[in-house]
Specification:
The complex is a heterodimer of chains A (161) and B (127). Chain A is globular. Chain A contains eight helices and no strands. In chain A, helix 1 crosses helix 3 and helix 3 runs parallel beside helix 7. The longest helix of chain A has 25 residues. Chain A is mainly alpha-helical. The relative contact order of chain A is 0.12. Chain B has 127 residues and is mostly helical. Helices cover 49% and strands 9% of the residues of chain B. Chain B has four helices and two strands; from the N terminus they run H-H-H-H-E-E. Chain B has a two-stranded antiparallel ribbon with strand order 1-2. Chain B is rod-shaped. Classes of the chains: A mainly alpha (161), B mainly alpha (127). The interface between A and B is medium-sized, with 39 and 24 residues.
Chain lengths: 161, 127
Amino acid sequence: MQRWHRRLALFYSDHRRQLYGYALAVVRCPQKAEDAVHDAFARLLVSPRGPLRLKAYVFRAVRNAALDLRSREARLAPPLEVLQRIHTSESPAGGPEFDQRDRLVRALAQLEESEREVVLLRLHGQLKFRQIAQVLSEPVGTVATRYRRAILKLREQLEEP
Amino acid sequence: MKNPVERVLAALPVSEPSRQLDDRIDRLITSASPPADWARVGRMRVAAVAAVALAVGLSGGFSGGFAASRWMGQPTQDRPAALATGVRELQVVLMPSGVRNPFDFSVQRPRPIKVSVTTNAHQGDNL
């Protein structure tokens, strides 16, 4: 196995959950999200080799593949439905943990899509602002501002009785 | 992360992709990089080396044979007889590899020199 292919395989095994969750948030369909991750890796494997730091590079490839698939969709699922699917947990419905999760997910669903994307990349993908900026092709300052605004909105919504 | 909202958000569980996706990615990576067939690579290397050696040997043999017949002023078909008489004279043409003085036009021409060669060759010797 070539070194580049080995690096990709290792990256996938370490980040499969984050990549899938992000693709699902973009394309809003579980099957399409898997297709997006698959398509992204198919494209990456064809390229001769990647950069030294793979994270932003692979997330960007997954985003591009997800956006390609999403553009063919006639109807997108509502964000709340998608987020509930992404953040499934074993905790029983009605418990305190479930309630907290449910409130957070509903608050996330009310964010603008661009804000939600930054939050998901930052908190679930564990990407730095610089890496998120590479993924989204936007300035780092814009990404950081958007993230702070999103966190502020979430806090306000969660503090509401 | 200092913000409590960030801490809670980061702790949110994220759903797993299906095993099918893992299998698809695995197949993708495996098919993109098939295992190296070292036996085949070895055979190809041996064949390449043998071809080069054969080419070098043939060219050396031909040029040597033609040169020997030329040196002795004999036609190629009479080479066995010529070889039997031995090499008497060898003409060497030296070509200058570089010109140090650009105004010295004489060095740009090939300068033939004659070299006498005495051999102990006898009839039937392989030259």
